[in-house]
Every structure is written in C-alpha cells, then in structure tokens.
C-alpha cells in the first residue's frame, strides 16, 4: 500500500515538472493578427443612425460582438491625407508632414503646391514598424502606403496612373473587310474603329466586328468582337449589345485596362460606346506577386465616374456598377492576400462613402439645387455607399479566423456645404498677394498665398520677407480673416427648407437633427452676419512642420475653400466637404473592433484617431515607437 501511494506521488510530480509534449503544444498561444479597414468619410452619427434603422446588418453584428466607440475625433485639418497618416502612425500632422491634402513645398517657389497622396510619411507607419519587428505586412490602397514613395509593406497595392480619361464615343459602322472569324452572321458583317488615346503608350485602335446571330428574319446586330488585328482570336473580347465588357491594355511591361458598354440599336443606326478611364495599379511584393494578382483579379478598375453620370453618359445603375466593381476588386484582393499570405497586419481602404458624400450630400436648404424631393433622392445615393461598405465588413468578418482582430475605422466625417470661399481673393484685395498680367501669382511681390483643400486652407508667407515683415504680414492676415463677415441672402425657400428638415427630424425621432435644423432656421430667419473663417493656429504656433503654413484657416459650418481668384464667396462647387473643426459631430469618425482581445458588446467613450496605432502595436505585441501621441484603448481590451 505504501508503495502504491509512493507511485501516485511520483506520477503527479512528473506531470507537473514534465508535462506531455501534446499538452504543451495545446497551450502555445497563437500570435494575434490584425485587419484594419478604413472607410473614407464614414460619419459616426450617420453610421449609427443607419445601424439603428437596420440598414447596416454587418456593422450591427460587429458592434454586438465587439467594441464601439462613442465617436472618434480626427486631427486638424480633418482631411484624408493628414487623418490617415495619424491612423497609420499615431502622430499628428506636425510630425508626419501630412499637413493637408495639398501644401506648399518649402523648397519651391510660392505658387508650387504638392499633393500629399504620393509623398512619404515623416514618421514610420504601422506596416513599416511591424515589418521591422519581423511581422508580415500588407497594404491595399491605404493612403500613405504608396510603395513608390517611402517604406512599403511586404505586399503592397496602390493607385497607379490614369492612362486615358473616360469617354462616350460615337461609332460609325461600315462594311467589314479583311476579318478572320469563324462565327456566322445573318446580316452583313460590319465594323467600327474605337480610337484609344493613351498617355503611357502609343495610341491604340481597336476594331469592333458586329454580327447578327439572332436568325429572326430581322436586322439584329447583337454580338460584337473586339480585336487589335481584325482576327477573332480566342483572347479577343466578345460581348452582347448593352452589356459590360472589359479590355486589358499593356505597354512597356505595365498593365492597365478599362470597362465599356456598347449602347447600340439593332440596326446600328445609333451606335456609341461608353468606356471608363484606363487605369493601372502599383503592385509590389515578392517575385510573381503582381502577375498573380492580375491573373486572378484582372486589371485595376476605375474607382468611379461621376463625370459620366452627370453628363448622362451612363445611368445611376451603371454608375453604381462601376463603383461596386472597384470595391469588390479592392476587397477581393485584400482578402486573397490575407488568405494566401497570412499577413500579421493587413490594412485596406475604400473611398466610396467619401466620394458620394462630396457629390451628393444635399441636406442643407442653403445648398445649390436643394429641394425636399432632390434631397431625398440624394440621401438614397449616400445610403447606397454606406450599404456597400457594410457588405465589405460582412465579407471581411466571414474571412476571420480565431486569432484575427478586425478594426473598422474612418478618417473623418462629412458635412454639407453651401458656399465656397476664395481666401486668395481676400489676400489680393488686401494687397498681400500680387499677380502678373496673366493672372499668375507674382512670386517676388506677394507676401502671402493660400493653398486650399476641402474646408481648410494653409496660408504661406513669403520666405524672402524679413522677420519683422513676416510678423506684420501675419498680423494683417489674421486680422483680415478673423474680421471678415458674410450676411446670408434671404430666400423664402431656404426658410421653408429648414422647417421641412426640422419636421422630418421630429417624425423620425432624430433629436440632434431637429436641434440643428431649428438652430439654422432661427439663425437664417434673423439673418445674422456669419464669420466664415476660423483661425486654427497663427504665426506664433510652435513646433510647426516645414510643410505647414504660417497660418491655418478652417471653414465654419457650411463653408469650403478654393485656391482660385474668384468672387470672395459663391455657391459651393461640391455638396459635401471636410477639413473643418473636428469637434463638429458631422466630422466625427467611427471606431469598431472585434476579436479575441476585445470585449464583447462593449461601448467605450470618445477616442481620437491617434489612439488607433498604439492599440494595434499592443495587439501585435511589438514595441511601439516613442513618437506616438495617442494611447492604447485599454477599456476596449479584455
């Protein structure tokens, strides 16, 4: 009996000191993986309103199974490039150098601006830091991740070039000659030529052969072959009338392409072809990666074509098909990379909400073209973009495995605008900006110039001014814009519009919308003077980045800015804008998260976009760089 107890004791000691190899393997924790999606322009209040109405089922499920922030405050100015740089780095614009979507290069003359979307970040982004720490990284279209400018991820896809703009071309069909083909036609063969002007290559000619395969006793051209050499090869594109087709284009080892639709009657008396822009992508990765993506998913499709829709080249349905095709391509490529290459960090992006909101956010009666009927129609366009994004969330959630964490974020919200301001006109009227006889900025004699983007404008003072001259010019600029006022022109239809908006808000139980509409109603009724400009910072601001202006102007609610020398204020050229004060609720972004490290069905207080990167570093369990300005969202984590 004593020996029996002795063996039991030895057994338990052995189990503790020398656990079985299988048990040890089961206890090994899997490394966390992170998928981050950014939906450009996704408004916090509008998203949650749609969720409440049951219009975004996948985001609703994400909220139920994870964490949702009250809202997310972005950086100033609330523009795409600075905001995404903050998300990617955890640093403010004064550190990343992404101070606007456009800025004045300090090394160039006063009137030479730079676009942010092809510039490197001054602070190392998440994908670079993760890669440095041995993690596998991937970026798809994420602003700031351009592989040709700065540090790239292991797998990178970004916007390439536009080789040709979209067009609607008339086609002249005539008797076909010299074609090699096997298909029969019940009407005489006819052909037309599509001329394709290309920026990246020699202009192309594509021959279109029309066939009548209907055998119905009528002239009914219904089948079309597209060829570069009048030979119906297996690789040639064949489409039916009024159906979408696509054609890849190659030049100098680069790949692009376009989608098209023939708009044709059966007898070819009326014939035209709409084609999208010819677009390409930048794809970087290991050998064969680009070829693999192009083979599996085809060329990079155009993002949208508002011009074609507004010119009535295409219907709203066709417009949505173009945008949906782009979103599907970006999502499918992203999730394929996730599945095939298992990156520890995947960051991808879609811009459809932002694009639709810029063009169709018609909710303020002071906006050009406002009517209740038109507003309701436009609201459906915006809702469609949110539903499209919700589908991306659903598709991504379906792809998640046990160790995956999903973060759904946006860079900023969006607000309706009715007026565009011309700060350079005010500078010129004040004698601070000079132009030559051709209307161009006179570099030598100008003291100040504005570079506008959205609802923000950077004011740059001439670097050739002495310190004293600069201080004097800065004081003049600040006084000029802080004192400038506009008195709204009274229109009865605008007053009725505000009453209608307030009434709709009551019916729909939207208290915040009602309060805003009521405030605008009384403000407009008494026609108070408005100060359209706000000064975010002045010339005395410390720790400015060289890309930043000496003074930053923000548009008040309802105002955007332009760089042109036009009237000091005029009806807005866009319906939606951002870039203004991020404290406004319309400009607040979203934050949702799900995964094994996040709490379930949990709500946290307001965050900032600077908190996202520190949280991702925590999830990946890698050292965070010392320049981070945000904080880990501890309340969101288990």
UniProtKB/TrEMBL annotation:
One of its GO terms (molecular function) is hydrolase activity. Pfam families: Phosphodiest. It comes from the Bacteria. It comes from Cytobacillus oceanisediminis 2691. This is Nucleotide pyrophosphatase. InterPro entries: Actin_CS, Alkaline_phosphatase_core_sf, Phosphodiest/P_Trfase. Coiled coil: none annotated. Gene3D superfamilies: Alkaline Phosphatase, subunit A (3.40.720.10). PROSITE patterns: ACTINS_2.
